[in-house]
Amino acid sequence: MRYCINCCIHLLPNDLHRQCFRCRGPNHNNQKCPVCKGDNKIPLYTDSKQMKLLAVLEVRTDHSESWNGFFCLRKGKLCSLIFGLIIMTLVMASYILTGAKHGLLLIPSPFHYAAFISNPSLMDNESFSDMKDHYQPSKINISYVKDYPSIKLIIDTIASKLEFITRQRPDLEELRKQEPHMFSVIPNKFLPNSKNPCWYEEYRGNTTTDPYATNSYALYSKRFRTIFDYLRKVFWNHLYHYKDKHYRLRCLPHFYIIGQPKCGTTDLYDRLRLHPDVRFSAIKEPHWWTRKRFGIIRLRDGFHDRYPVEDYLDLFDLAAHQIQGALQSEAAKERGKMSNIIIGEASASTMWDNNAWIFFYDNSTEGEPPFLIQDFIHAFQPNAKLIVMLRDPVERLYSDYLYFASANKSAEDFHEKVAESLQLFENCMLDYSLRACVYNNTLNNAMPVRLQVGLYVVYLLDWLTVFGKDQILVLRLEDHASNVKYTMHMVFQFLDLGPLSEKQEALITKSPASNTRRPEDRSLGPMLPTTKAILKDFYRPFNTKLAQVLFDDAFLWKRT
């Protein structure tokens, strides 16, 4: 069958091809066809089964051209137009989203970033840097001064919503219902001849039993296994035998260094442990009250089995052995002498981290946690002493960022993270109370920097609902850095520690500072002046309230 390629650019089936007004099927004459006359026309041969085509098509511009070609041309143009519009839409959407995030739009975006993403938990000195790898900030070489007016509006909105409302303290029976096992292990009274809260507990194991076989701290952390290996070796030597039964001395801390992160708690810990009457847990920061008792190691790994209170008490066995030795000494037995050894615990998350409550306690308080860490500590240790070390929250936040951020650290990146975190905090404050936002797990994990840790007065007021002011010593890192001796004397007096020799005091007060800023972080320089101004505005009302509560204007941090 023979057809003219000029007439039929697209091959049609035989029955349809006959309808072409130029072609007449098998009777078509190439010489008589008015369209096909002329030279250099390319005939096309096909059979009824398969077609193979290799030809150069001639596109005519006269009005006698095939309508099929015309429609094909229009169809191609239409597809190109639609494709172009799609590309343009994507480019504009990218511009709007990126510009709105970094404040670069000529017309401010009316949208806020209200969607909370689920990040892993923020683990002090443990996993926070691992959690940050996903966040890759955009590098934009612009002046950040223009951000101040728009962010100032956000800060003003937050300030207008602030209300420092006293929380309702839960009663003891409610606490018992939440943690029945803990109340079954820890007694109501402690040994009268020990300054530290301790008691004897019957041990039912035998000589072949490993007392630390199931301890979660030993199972999940290789670096603590050496400590537990030593405890296993000396365990039986420290059991107290009475009437064919074995008893072990159990102890809780006498005092807690409860916060805050990047405020000098490590330095205070390192100096205090040099005092002859002070002992600490085998691990500096067990994070048991805030995380491990809920089974949280890293939220990115999900929940593990909850660490029982026995695992926490095991961390004080080394100190308990020394207290027991003092109690059982001949001099102590004869004179009824009291053991003056005290134990401390220095988890810097204790003051502020109540993020796990939402997963374990009934949410019937409009977003506010019904129970806080201090409720349980006070239930067992109403006479506990608490030490808080604070610093200018603006500088604390930058130090926190430099310590925990894993990559792409810069003053510009810090500024962007601060701006984003303020927007997220504002969104929460529009719908919830201040306490609900401060303890909001979703919000705290979504914010790129930990703004909430610097809201010291919110946490302090909640601790003061259960503990008296005389039980909480609040220090400033700035004072500690300028006069270590004075600060340490305040701590010794607060803990009622005995006098030291000049040599012992010099060892404690003249030791080099611990956990200072790393050289690579110092090279990044200070934060941007605009960022500093923004953060000072944000923290100002909280600092003002803190100074009022403590009757000390030094906590306004006006000179920093």
UniProtKB/TrEMBL annotation:
Residues of the Sulfotransferase domain: 253-517
Gene: Chst15
Protein name: Sulfotransferase
Gene Ontology BP annotations: hexose biosynthetic process
The EC number(s) this enzyme carries: 2.8.2.-
Signal peptide extent: none
This protein's record includes keyword Membrane: yes
Entries under Pfam families matching the protein: Sulfotransfer_1
SUPFAM superfamilies linked: P-loop containing nucleoside triphosphate hydrolases
Regions crossing the membrane: 78-97
Enzyme class: transferase
Top-level taxonomic group: Eukaryota
GO MF terms held by the record: N-acetylgalactosamine 4-sulfate 6-O-sulfotransferase activity
Keyword list, A-Z: Membrane, Transferase, Transmembrane, Transmembrane helix
Organism name: Steatornis caripensis (Oilbird)
Family of the protein in this entry: Belongs to the sulfotransferase 1 family.
